[in-house]
Give the backbone structure.
Amino acid sequence: MPFKKKVLILCTGNSCRSQIAEALVNARLGERWQAVSAGTEPAHRVHPKALQVLAEIGIQHSGEPKPVDVFREQSFDLVITVCDDAAENCPLWLGPGVRQHIGFPDPARATGTEEEILAAFREVRDGIAERVLGFLRQQQ
């Protein structure tokens, strides 16, 4: 079995974008990458719509929001931040690992009808699948 690289995916609340990224990496690139996620101000739960849009593509995710400090002493091959809004408190990672920013808007801030909000979550999910997974494939 080949050696797996480790990636930490950071965000503010660790309830949407970083959870979606963690689930996608582990489901689609799990033979080469092991992903975990964390936040600077973790929410109380993973956003239900994040879980819903993952389930739509056949991924069952059981993550929970975690503070970034739980990973401070661990070593990672790569650390990816996924916060897009400069006003957010995206974490600065001071531990080992190459840092890369691949930002996305926060779908939890989407407004409108139920379908419009779900569309925002799907757009972020699909963007993460394209950009984060594409970046990780280049790192192999």
User: Anything to note?
Assistant: Helices lie at 17-28, 48-55, 114-138.
